[in-house]
Amino acid sequence: MSKQRRKKLPIDSWGDESVDRGEKKNILLKAGETFTGVEVLLPLMVWRGMEDGPVLGITAAVHGDEINGTGAIRSLIQEPPFELKRGTLILVPVVNVLGFERHSRYTPDRRDLNRTFPGSKNGSLTGRLAHLIMKEVVGRCDYLVDLHTAAVRRTNFPNVRANMDDADCERLAEVFGAEVIVNNTGPEGSLRHEACQAGCPTIILEAGEALKVEPSVQGITQRGLIHIMSELDMIDVSDDLRPDTSPHQMIVQSSSWVRASNGGFLKFHVAPGDTVDKGQPLATNTGLLGGEIETIVSPCQGIVLGMTTMPAVSPGDPILHIALPDTRKQFRSLEKSVDGLEEDTLENQVRDHLATNITVVDHIELDEDEIEIKESDEA
Asked: Please, which residues bridge with residue 297 across strands?
Protein backbone atom coordinates (compact mmCIF):
# COMPACT_ATOMS: atom_id res chain seq x y z
CA MET A 1 0.00 0.00 0.00
CA SER A 2 1.06 3.61 -0.54
CA LYS A 3 2.50 5.20 2.57
CA GLN A 4 0.99 8.21 4.29
CA ARG A 5 1.93 11.30 2.32
CA ARG A 6 3.75 14.36 3.51
CA LYS A 7 1.96 17.62 2.85
CA LYS A 8 1.78 18.37 -0.89
CA LEU A 9 3.27 21.47 -2.42
CA PRO A 10 0.68 23.94 -3.78
CA ILE A 11 -0.31 23.52 -7.41
CA ASP A 12 -0.81 27.25 -8.04
CA SER A 13 2.69 28.37 -7.03
CA TRP A 14 5.94 27.36 -8.74
CA GLY A 15 8.70 29.56 -7.41
CA ASP A 16 8.08 33.00 -8.90
CA GLU A 17 5.39 31.63 -11.24
CA SER A 18 1.69 31.35 -10.41
CA VAL A 19 -0.91 29.27 -12.23
CA ASP A 20 -4.57 30.27 -12.00
CA ARG A 21 -7.66 28.13 -12.53
CA GLY A 22 -8.36 27.54 -16.20
CA GLU A 23 -4.78 28.43 -17.14
CA LYS A 24 -2.03 26.58 -18.98
CA LYS A 25 1.48 27.67 -18.10
CA ASN A 26 4.91 26.50 -19.17
CA ILE A 27 7.33 26.14 -16.27
CA LEU A 28 11.12 25.83 -16.48
CA LEU A 29 12.95 24.17 -13.60
CA LYS A 30 16.72 24.20 -13.25
CA ALA A 31 17.77 20.56 -13.74
CA GLY A 32 21.55 20.99 -13.67
CA GLU A 33 24.40 22.50 -15.62
CA THR A 34 26.51 21.48 -18.58
CA PHE A 35 30.27 20.99 -18.35
CA THR A 36 30.60 24.63 -19.42
CA GLY A 37 28.44 25.86 -16.55
CA VAL A 38 25.38 26.64 -18.70
CA GLU A 39 22.05 25.93 -17.00
CA VAL A 40 20.03 22.91 -18.13
CA LEU A 41 16.30 23.55 -17.80
CA LEU A 42 13.50 21.00 -17.37
CA PRO A 43 10.37 22.16 -19.24
CA LEU A 44 6.92 21.13 -18.09
CA MET A 45 3.34 22.34 -18.50
CA VAL A 46 0.86 22.91 -15.68
CA TRP A 47 -2.76 22.84 -16.88
CA ARG A 48 -5.46 23.67 -14.34
CA GLY A 49 -9.17 23.10 -14.79
CA MET A 50 -11.74 25.62 -13.64
CA GLU A 51 -12.85 23.35 -10.80
CA ASP A 52 -10.89 21.70 -8.01
CA GLY A 53 -9.99 18.06 -8.47
CA PRO A 54 -7.09 15.60 -8.44
CA VAL A 55 -3.59 16.40 -9.62
CA LEU A 56 -2.39 13.92 -12.26
CA GLY A 57 1.23 13.89 -13.35
CA ILE A 58 2.23 12.37 -16.70
CA THR A 59 5.96 11.89 -17.21
CA ALA A 60 8.12 10.46 -19.99
CA ALA A 61 11.77 9.82 -20.87
CA VAL A 62 13.04 9.02 -17.39
CA HIS A 63 15.41 7.09 -19.61
CA GLY A 64 16.54 9.81 -21.99
CA ASP A 65 16.17 7.77 -25.20
CA GLU A 66 12.64 6.45 -24.46
CA ILE A 67 10.66 9.11 -26.30
CA ASN A 68 7.40 7.42 -27.32
CA GLY A 69 5.88 8.93 -24.18
CA THR A 70 7.39 12.29 -25.08
CA GLY A 71 5.42 12.21 -28.32
CA ALA A 72 2.21 11.32 -26.51
CA ILE A 73 2.60 14.16 -23.99
CA ARG A 74 3.41 16.67 -26.73
CA SER A 75 0.18 15.65 -28.50
CA LEU A 76 -1.77 16.39 -25.32
CA ILE A 77 -0.07 19.77 -25.09
CA GLN A 78 -0.42 20.76 -28.74
CA GLU A 79 -3.75 19.21 -29.74
CA PRO A 80 -5.67 18.09 -26.63
CA PRO A 81 -8.77 16.09 -27.64
CA PHE A 82 -10.64 17.21 -24.50
CA GLU A 83 -11.26 20.17 -22.23
CA LEU A 84 -9.84 19.84 -18.75
CA LYS A 85 -12.75 20.62 -16.44
CA ARG A 86 -11.51 19.62 -13.00
CA GLY A 87 -8.20 19.18 -11.30
CA THR A 88 -4.71 19.71 -12.70
CA LEU A 89 -2.39 18.05 -15.20
CA ILE A 90 1.38 18.25 -14.77
CA LEU A 91 2.87 17.26 -18.12
CA VAL A 92 6.60 16.48 -18.23
CA PRO A 93 7.61 15.43 -21.79
CA VAL A 94 11.23 14.64 -20.81
CA VAL A 95 12.31 13.91 -17.24
CA ASN A 96 15.91 12.97 -18.04
CA VAL A 97 16.77 16.11 -20.01
CA LEU A 98 20.48 15.47 -19.40
CA GLY A 99 20.31 12.08 -21.15
CA PHE A 100 17.82 13.27 -23.77
CA GLU A 101 20.29 15.91 -25.01
CA ARG A 102 22.78 13.10 -25.71
CA HIS A 103 20.23 10.57 -27.09
CA SER A 104 21.25 8.43 -24.13
CA ARG A 105 19.37 6.24 -21.68
CA TYR A 106 21.67 7.44 -18.90
CA THR A 107 22.79 10.74 -17.41
CA PRO A 108 26.21 12.27 -18.16
CA ASP A 109 27.64 10.81 -14.92
CA ARG A 110 26.78 7.33 -16.30
CA ARG A 111 24.02 6.61 -13.79
CA ASP A 112 20.52 5.22 -14.37
CA LEU A 113 18.09 7.91 -13.22
CA ASN A 114 15.40 5.27 -12.79
CA ARG A 115 17.43 3.58 -10.06
CA THR A 116 18.34 6.82 -8.23
CA PHE A 117 15.03 8.09 -6.80
CA PRO A 118 14.26 9.72 -4.40
CA GLY A 119 17.68 11.25 -4.93
CA SER A 120 19.45 13.83 -2.82
CA LYS A 121 19.66 17.61 -2.92
CA ASN A 122 23.42 17.43 -2.35
CA GLY A 123 24.13 14.14 -4.12
CA SER A 124 25.43 13.22 -7.57
CA LEU A 125 24.24 14.98 -10.72
CA THR A 126 21.68 12.20 -11.24
CA GLY A 127 20.67 12.22 -7.57
CA ARG A 128 19.99 15.95 -7.71
CA LEU A 129 17.76 15.55 -10.77
CA ALA A 130 15.86 12.73 -9.04
CA HIS A 131 15.41 14.93 -5.95
CA LEU A 132 14.07 17.76 -8.12
CA ILE A 133 11.46 15.48 -9.72
CA MET A 134 10.38 14.02 -6.39
CA LYS A 135 10.00 17.45 -4.84
CA GLU A 136 8.54 19.54 -7.65
CA VAL A 137 6.47 16.97 -9.55
CA VAL A 138 5.69 13.97 -7.32
CA GLY A 139 5.42 16.37 -4.37
CA ARG A 140 2.38 18.02 -6.00
CA CYS A 141 0.64 14.97 -7.53
CA ASP A 142 -2.19 12.76 -6.31
CA TYR A 143 -1.52 10.23 -9.09
CA LEU A 144 1.27 9.64 -11.61
CA VAL A 145 1.56 7.82 -14.95
CA ASP A 146 5.14 7.25 -16.11
CA LEU A 147 5.65 6.39 -19.80
CA HIS A 148 8.47 4.07 -20.91
CA THR A 149 9.60 2.02 -23.92
CA ALA A 150 11.84 -1.00 -24.27
CA ALA A 151 15.59 -0.55 -24.07
CA VAL A 152 17.58 0.06 -27.23
CA ARG A 153 17.35 -2.72 -29.86
CA ARG A 154 14.19 -4.12 -28.27
CA THR A 155 10.48 -3.46 -28.57
CA ASN A 156 7.70 -3.89 -26.01
CA PHE A 157 4.10 -4.83 -26.62
CA PRO A 158 2.05 -2.25 -24.64
CA ASN A 159 1.70 -3.35 -21.03
CA VAL A 160 1.02 -1.60 -17.75
CA ARG A 161 3.09 -2.38 -14.65
CA ALA A 162 1.59 -1.68 -11.26
CA ASN A 163 1.40 -2.85 -7.68
CA MET A 164 -2.05 -4.44 -7.79
CA ASP A 165 -2.05 -4.81 -4.00
CA ASP A 166 -2.45 -1.03 -3.80
CA ALA A 167 -6.10 -0.16 -4.45
CA ASP A 168 -5.31 3.17 -6.13
CA CYS A 169 -2.64 1.66 -8.39
CA GLU A 170 -5.02 -1.18 -9.23
CA ARG A 171 -7.70 1.32 -10.18
CA LEU A 172 -5.38 3.25 -12.51
CA ALA A 173 -3.94 0.10 -14.08
CA GLU A 174 -7.27 -1.54 -14.83
CA VAL A 175 -8.93 1.57 -16.22
CA PHE A 176 -5.96 2.38 -18.49
CA GLY A 177 -7.12 -0.57 -20.57
CA ALA A 178 -3.93 -2.30 -21.68
CA GLU A 179 -4.25 -5.96 -22.63
CA VAL A 180 -1.57 -7.02 -20.12
CA ILE A 181 -0.93 -5.79 -16.56
CA VAL A 182 2.26 -6.99 -14.88
CA ASN A 183 1.74 -7.04 -11.11
CA ASN A 184 4.84 -5.94 -9.21
CA THR A 185 6.12 -3.08 -7.10
CA GLY A 186 8.97 -2.11 -9.39
CA PRO A 187 12.66 -1.98 -8.48
CA GLU A 188 13.87 0.12 -5.59
CA GLY A 189 15.10 3.48 -6.80
CA SER A 190 12.67 3.63 -9.73
CA LEU A 191 10.34 6.60 -10.00
CA ARG A 192 7.28 4.34 -9.72
CA HIS A 193 8.47 2.54 -6.59
CA GLU A 194 9.61 5.67 -4.76
CA ALA A 195 6.57 7.74 -5.74
CA CYS A 196 4.31 5.01 -4.35
CA GLN A 197 6.41 4.93 -1.18
CA ALA A 198 5.87 8.68 -0.89
CA GLY A 199 2.11 8.19 -1.11
CA CYS A 200 1.55 8.99 -4.80
CA PRO A 201 -0.04 5.97 -6.57
CA THR A 202 1.94 5.44 -9.76
CA ILE A 203 1.77 3.11 -12.74
CA ILE A 204 3.99 2.81 -15.80
CA LEU A 205 3.29 1.98 -19.42
CA GLU A 206 5.92 0.02 -21.34
CA ALA A 207 5.33 0.31 -25.09
CA GLY A 208 7.32 0.34 -28.29
CA GLU A 209 10.97 1.12 -29.03
CA ALA A 210 13.55 3.63 -27.88
CA LEU A 211 14.37 6.64 -30.08
CA LYS A 212 11.03 6.42 -31.89
CA VAL A 213 7.58 8.00 -31.78
CA GLU A 214 5.29 5.26 -33.10
CA PRO A 215 1.73 6.16 -34.21
CA SER A 216 -0.03 3.07 -32.85
CA VAL A 217 1.78 3.38 -29.52
CA GLN A 218 0.63 7.00 -29.38
CA GLY A 219 -2.93 5.83 -29.93
CA ILE A 220 -2.76 3.23 -27.14
CA THR A 221 -1.16 5.78 -24.80
CA GLN A 222 -3.63 8.58 -25.45
CA ARG A 223 -6.58 6.22 -25.12
CA GLY A 224 -5.35 4.99 -21.75
CA LEU A 225 -4.70 8.49 -20.44
CA ILE A 226 -8.19 9.60 -21.47
CA HIS A 227 -9.59 6.57 -19.63
CA ILE A 228 -7.73 7.61 -16.48
CA MET A 229 -8.76 11.28 -16.66
CA SER A 230 -12.37 10.24 -17.19
CA GLU A 231 -12.19 7.83 -14.23
CA LEU A 232 -10.81 10.63 -12.04
CA ASP A 233 -13.64 12.92 -13.22
CA MET A 234 -11.18 15.43 -14.68
CA ILE A 235 -12.80 15.50 -18.12
CA ASP A 236 -16.28 14.96 -19.54
CA VAL A 237 -16.08 12.31 -22.23
CA SER A 238 -18.50 12.69 -25.14
CA ASP A 239 -19.52 9.80 -27.37
CA ASP A 240 -17.17 11.13 -30.06
CA LEU A 241 -14.23 11.18 -27.67
CA ARG A 242 -15.05 8.02 -25.76
CA PRO A 243 -12.33 5.54 -26.76
CA ASP A 244 -12.87 1.85 -27.27
CA THR A 245 -11.52 -0.43 -24.59
CA SER A 246 -9.42 -3.54 -24.95
CA PRO A 247 -11.60 -6.64 -25.46
CA HIS A 248 -9.65 -8.48 -22.76
CA GLN A 249 -7.24 -7.84 -19.93
CA MET A 250 -4.84 -10.25 -18.28
CA ILE A 251 -3.06 -9.66 -14.97
CA VAL A 252 0.19 -11.61 -14.74
CA GLN A 253 2.42 -12.17 -11.74
CA SER A 254 5.58 -13.19 -13.58
CA SER A 255 7.37 -13.26 -16.89
CA SER A 256 10.29 -15.11 -18.43
CA TRP A 257 13.06 -14.29 -20.91
CA VAL A 258 13.99 -16.80 -23.60
CA ARG A 259 17.65 -16.75 -24.64
CA ALA A 260 19.70 -17.92 -27.58
CA SER A 261 21.89 -20.95 -26.87
CA ASN A 262 24.23 -20.20 -29.77
CA GLY A 263 25.47 -17.26 -31.75
CA GLY A 264 23.87 -16.66 -35.12
CA PHE A 265 21.29 -14.73 -37.11
CA LEU A 266 17.58 -15.12 -36.25
CA LYS A 267 14.48 -15.71 -38.34
CA PHE A 268 11.50 -14.95 -36.09
CA HIS A 269 8.29 -16.95 -36.13
CA VAL A 270 6.31 -14.76 -33.70
CA ALA A 271 5.80 -11.03 -33.17
CA PRO A 272 5.02 -8.78 -30.18
CA GLY A 273 1.54 -9.45 -28.81
CA ASP A 274 1.33 -13.01 -30.19
CA THR A 275 0.20 -15.79 -27.89
CA VAL A 276 2.56 -18.77 -27.78
CA ASP A 277 2.19 -22.35 -26.59
CA LYS A 278 4.79 -24.45 -24.78
CA GLY A 279 7.11 -26.01 -27.36
CA GLN A 280 6.09 -23.58 -30.12
CA PRO A 281 8.97 -22.41 -32.36
CA LEU A 282 9.87 -18.79 -31.64
CA ALA A 283 12.88 -18.28 -33.91
CA THR A 284 15.31 -20.21 -36.06
CA ASN A 285 18.97 -19.42 -35.53
CA THR A 286 21.18 -19.72 -38.61
CA GLY A 287 24.70 -18.96 -39.72
CA LEU A 288 25.37 -16.08 -42.07
CA LEU A 289 25.35 -18.46 -45.03
CA GLY A 290 21.99 -19.88 -44.05
CA GLY A 291 22.92 -23.11 -42.27
CA GLU A 292 20.49 -23.88 -39.46
CA ILE A 293 22.05 -23.86 -35.97
CA GLU A 294 19.05 -24.24 -33.66
CA THR A 295 15.32 -23.75 -33.40
CA ILE A 296 14.41 -21.81 -30.26
CA VAL A 297 11.09 -22.87 -28.76
CA SER A 298 8.90 -21.46 -26.05
CA PRO A 299 9.41 -22.96 -22.59
CA CYS A 300 5.88 -21.93 -21.55
CA GLN A 301 2.46 -20.66 -22.55
CA GLY A 302 2.03 -16.91 -22.61
CA ILE A 303 1.94 -13.72 -24.61
CA VAL A 304 5.00 -12.10 -26.22
CA LEU A 305 5.58 -9.02 -24.08
CA GLY A 306 8.81 -7.92 -25.70
CA MET A 307 11.52 -9.05 -28.06
CA THR A 308 14.80 -8.08 -29.58
CA THR A 309 14.81 -6.18 -32.86
CA MET A 310 18.45 -7.16 -33.45
CA PRO A 311 18.56 -10.53 -35.26
CA ALA A 312 22.31 -11.03 -34.73
CA VAL A 313 22.78 -12.74 -31.36
CA SER A 314 25.48 -14.19 -29.12
CA PRO A 315 25.03 -17.18 -26.78
CA GLY A 316 22.89 -16.13 -23.85
CA ASP A 317 21.38 -13.06 -25.49
CA PRO A 318 17.71 -12.49 -24.54
CA ILE A 319 15.46 -12.68 -27.58
CA LEU A 320 11.86 -12.83 -26.28
CA HIS A 321 10.08 -11.78 -23.10
CA ILE A 322 6.96 -13.84 -22.35
CA ALA A 323 4.26 -12.88 -19.83
CA LEU A 324 2.99 -15.97 -18.02
CA PRO A 325 -0.74 -16.49 -17.37
CA ASP A 326 -1.63 -17.96 -13.98
CA THR A 327 -3.60 -20.86 -15.43
CA ARG A 328 -4.07 -22.73 -18.70
CA LYS A 329 -7.70 -21.59 -18.69
CA GLN A 330 -6.59 -17.94 -18.51
CA PHE A 331 -4.20 -18.52 -21.40
CA ARG A 332 -6.83 -20.18 -23.59
CA SER A 333 -9.26 -17.33 -22.89
CA LEU A 334 -6.59 -14.81 -23.87
CA GLU A 335 -5.67 -16.80 -26.99
CA LYS A 336 -9.30 -16.93 -28.11
CA SER A 337 -9.76 -13.21 -27.54
CA VAL A 338 -6.60 -12.28 -29.45
CA ASP A 339 -7.55 -14.55 -32.35
CA GLY A 340 -10.99 -12.91 -32.46
CA LEU A 341 -9.80 -9.29 -32.65
CA GLU A 342 -11.37 -7.22 -35.41
CA GLU A 343 -8.94 -6.00 -38.06
CA ASP A 344 -9.54 -2.29 -37.39
CA THR A 345 -9.06 -2.38 -33.62
CA LEU A 346 -6.25 -0.39 -32.05
CA GLU A 347 -4.92 -3.64 -30.57
CA ASN A 348 -4.48 -5.14 -34.04
CA GLN A 349 -2.96 -1.93 -35.37
CA VAL A 350 -0.26 -1.91 -32.70
CA ARG A 351 0.48 -5.60 -33.36
CA ASP A 352 0.87 -4.93 -37.08
CA HIS A 353 3.03 -1.84 -36.54
CA LEU A 354 5.37 -3.44 -34.01
CA ALA A 355 5.79 -6.46 -36.28
CA THR A 356 7.22 -4.21 -39.01
CA ASN A 357 10.34 -3.74 -36.85
CA ILE A 358 11.31 -7.38 -37.36
CA THR A 359 10.99 -9.99 -40.12
CA VAL A 360 8.50 -12.70 -39.18
CA VAL A 361 8.35 -15.84 -41.32
CA ASP A 362 5.72 -18.55 -41.24
CA HIS A 363 5.42 -20.76 -38.19
CA ILE A 364 7.18 -24.10 -38.47
CA GLU A 365 6.18 -27.41 -36.99
CA LEU A 366 8.59 -29.61 -35.04
CA ASP A 367 8.38 -33.28 -34.19
CA GLU A 368 8.30 -33.97 -30.45
CA ASP A 369 11.81 -35.42 -30.47
CA GLU A 370 13.13 -32.19 -32.02
CA ILE A 371 11.84 -29.98 -29.21
CA GLU A 372 14.32 -29.05 -26.53
CA ILE A 373 12.90 -26.65 -23.96
CA LYS A 374 15.46 -24.71 -21.98
CA GLU A 375 14.81 -22.88 -18.74
CA SER A 376 15.27 -19.11 -18.91
CA ASP A 377 15.79 -16.28 -16.48
CA GLU A 378 15.43 -12.53 -16.27
CA ALA A 379 17.27 -10.38 -18.80
From this structure: 281
| CATH fold for the domain made of 13-231 | Aminopeptidase (3.40.630)
pLDDT per position as a tens digit, 90-111: 999 999 999 999 999 999 999 9
Whether residue 376 is predicted with pLDDT greater than 50 in this model: the reply is no
Distance from the Cα of residue 27 to its chain's centroid? 25
Instruction: List the alpha helices (DSSP H) in 111-259.
Output: 125-136, 167-176, 191-197, 215-231
Length of the chain: 379
Q: Report which of 286, 255, 156 is spatially closest to residue 214, judged by C-alpha positions.
A: 156
Return the CATH number of the domain spanning residue range 254-370: 2.40.50.100
Q: 274 or 362: which carries more pLDDT confidence?
A: 274
Cα-Cα-Cα-Cα torsion 67, 69, 74, 76, nearest 10 degrees, comes to: 170
Q: What is the distance between the alpha carbons of residues 265 and 284, in angstroms, rounded to a whole number?
A: 8
Structure confidence at residue 368 as a pLDDT band (50, 70, 90): low
Query: Do the Cβ atoms of 216 and 346 come closer than 8 Å?
Result: yes
pTM: 0.93
307 near 260, Cβ under 8 Å? no
Write down the domain spans for the chain. Answer: 13-231, 254-370
CATH topology of 13-231 equal to that of 254-370?
A: no
Distance between CA atoms of residues 159 and 175, nearest Å: 13
